[in-house]
Amino acid sequence: MNDVIYWLWLSTSPRIGPRAITSLLKYYGSPKEMYFAPVGEITRLLPRNIEGAEELEKRDLDEAKRIFEKCDNTGIDVVTMNEDIYPERLRNIHLPPAVIYVKGKLPDIDAEPAIAVIGTRKATPYGIKMGMRMGYEIAKCGATVISGLMMGIDSAAAEGALLADGKVIGVLGLPHELDKSRFSQDVVMRGALVSEYAPGTKPYGSFFRARNRITSGLSLGVAVIEAPLKSGTRLFVNEAADQGKEIFAVPGNADQPNCEGTNLLIKEGAKPVTNGWEVVSEFAALYPGKVRKVEFEMPSGVIPKAESAPRKAPRAEKSTKKVVDKAPNAAYIDLQKQLESLSPSQLKIIGAMDEASIHVDTIIERSGLAPAKVLAELTLLQIKGYVRQETGKRFTLNIKMK
Question: What residues contact residue 235 under an 8 Å CB cut-off, 6+ apart?
Answer without folding.
Answer: 209, 212
